[in-house]
Every structure is written in C-alpha cells, then in structure tokens.
Design a protein that fits this description.
six-stranded antiparallel beta sheet, Spore Coat Polysaccharide Biosynthesis Protein SpsA, Chain A, 24% strand
C-alpha cells in the first residue's frame, strides 16, 4: 500500500514552505512523523505530490533521508495537466487537492492513503485506515474510507481554517460533506463564513474531514470525470476556482458512485496553518516522544 502526500502547497498563510520546516528535536518535519506512522501501519511506498520546481529541495531535505526506509517516488502537480482543453495562460496556481491526487494516477496502481503534508494525524489513524483497505474484497473497490475527527479539536487559535464538514448515516458511512473554507472561533463561538462573508454558527462536535482518505485506484476515474464536469460548469471561475477533494468525494456519494466509511480513531489531529501554531505542534510531539510513542531521533 502507498502513502500519497499532497505537498504542492506553499503555505501562504504560514509564510513559507512549511512542509519542510523542522518541528522535531533532531530537525524532523511533520512529514517525517507521517511517513514513520505509515510504515508502522504497513505502507511500503510513499509518493510526494509536489511542484516540479521544488523537486531538488524536497529530495535533499526529505527524500534522501528516508530512501533506505521506504520506496520513494514523486509526482508533479502542473496546472497544464487537465483532462481536456487548455488551462488559461493567466492562471497561476494548480487546481486544488483533487487535481493533486490525479497527478499520481499513472504511477499509483494499488490501494493508497492520501494526506496533507502539513498535518499530524496520529499513528492510530494510519492503522485503522490501512486495516480497512487491506480487508476490502474484489467487489468492494469503490468502498473508500476516512478517519473521523471532531471539529472542535481541529481549529486554530490563530486564524480561520478550511474543513470538510461531514454527516454520517446510521451505519457509519459518509452521507454528506460540505467544504467550509473559513471556520474560526469568534468570541468563543465556532462559526464559518459563507461566500458572501456572512458568518454562521457551526456545531463544534461535527465530524471534520482532514484530507486523510483511504482510496483504491478506482477513485482516479471518478475524480477525472468530476474534474471534467468542474471544467465544463459555466459557474466555474477558471482563473481561481479549485477542484477540492471533499466536494469531489461528496459528488461520488450523491451520485452513488462510491461509499466512504467513517472510521473511529483514538488519534489526535494537530496541524500547522499559521506560524503561531508551530510551538503547539512541537510541544505535542515532544510529549509523545517522552511517553515513548516515537524515538527521540526518528530515523536513527
């Protein structure tokens, strides 16, 4: 099984290439802990989805030090890589997280886990997703999964965040998911802003998707079909809009093309969206090291 890490974002709110900002006691990045946990769960390959211009720095800082631990491959997210037509020459950025996953469609032929590069998900999340995918039968290749995190445990104290807000059916399958791009606490109350910048209260106990997914290769065809609809939609702003994973998966569920099991996990999510989030993550990882969850020198 493969771990696919979406690492093409430059982290504008953070102020730099946060995916390779040291967070551990020996210069480890959050990516290092993700790869370490995926190896423990059973993954034997990692694919980094990056911008082509970042290849050298990624290979030097991340790739080389783990090449002896796991098979390492790279896929490049390019704005020109679309199913039909041509990307507008004036468009600067790629097309979002679904587009990022499609960047590895020609090299990933096995079941795979998808994560963000700058999020710490916790060992148990990798274990439960790996185990679920491993048990899928031949006629269950359109059965995907995700670990469920509680929204209130995923907010930043330093600004707004984007989350996929989920609703589960009585059997624990994802019934509905909506992307909320701006969620934050205002005067102690969790709220989200709609596209008109009007703020609405949101239940802090909602299940949040953290862009941690368990997929089979069948997802590539569904994502490509959805991307074609996205590009053809007259409402799409081809200069700025992104084709994101959460709404793309939501379309698959609504269209009865796939199912997504929400898996309970004891893992705690913690992430770095803003520079001020970094000490919290570093302190949490230090606590896990002191408790014996991780070695002090991760790759030694």
């Amino acid at each position: 099984m493969t771990l696919v890490i979406m690492a093409a974002g430059m982290g504008h709110r953070y102020g730099g290439l946060k995916q390779i900002d040291p967070i551990g006691p020996n210069g480890e990045f959050i990516i290092d802990y993700s790869i370490y946990d995926a190896i423990r769960a059973g993954c034997n390959r990692v694919v980094f989805i990056i911008k082509e211009e970042n290849y050298d720095i990624f290979r030097e800082t991340v790739g080389k030090r783990i090449e002896g631990k796991i098979q390492v491959d790279y896929a490049f997210q390019r704005k020109e890589d679309i199913p039909f037509g041509k990307a507008p020459a004036e468009r600067v950025k790629p097309w979002g997280t679904s587009h990022a996953v499609l960047a590895c469609r020609d090299i990933v032929k096995e079941k795979f886990i998808v994560i963000n590069a700058d999020d710490f998900y916790g060992w148990d999340a990798y274990k439960v997703v790996f185990d679920y995918l491993s048990m899928l039968k031949e006629d269950e290749q359109y059965n995907y999964c995700m670990p469920g995190y509680v929204l209130k445990n995923t907010l930043s104290a330093h600004g707004h965040v984007a989350r996929g807000i989920c609703k589960a059916d009585k059997n624990g399958y994802l019934e509905h998911i909506v992307e909320r791009k701006k969620i934050m606490r205002i005067d102690g109350v969790a709220k989200y802003a709609d596209k008109y910048d009007n703020w609405h209260e949101i239940d802090e106990d909602s299940i949040a998707s953290m862009n941690f997914w368990g997929f089979t290769p069948t997802v590539f065809k569904l994502l490509e079909e959805g991307f074609c609809r996205f590009l053809s939609d007259p409402e799409t702003d081809l200069m700025n809009d992104e084709y994101l994973l959460a709404p793309a998966v939501g379309e698959m569920i609504t269209g009865k093309k796939a199912s997504v099991r929400i898996i309970n996990t004891s893992a705690k999510w913690i992430g770095v969206t803003y520079q001020a989030d970094k000490p919290l993550v570093a302190n949490y990882i230090r606590e896990l090291i002191e408790s014996g969850e991780y070695p002090r020198n991760l790759w030694n």
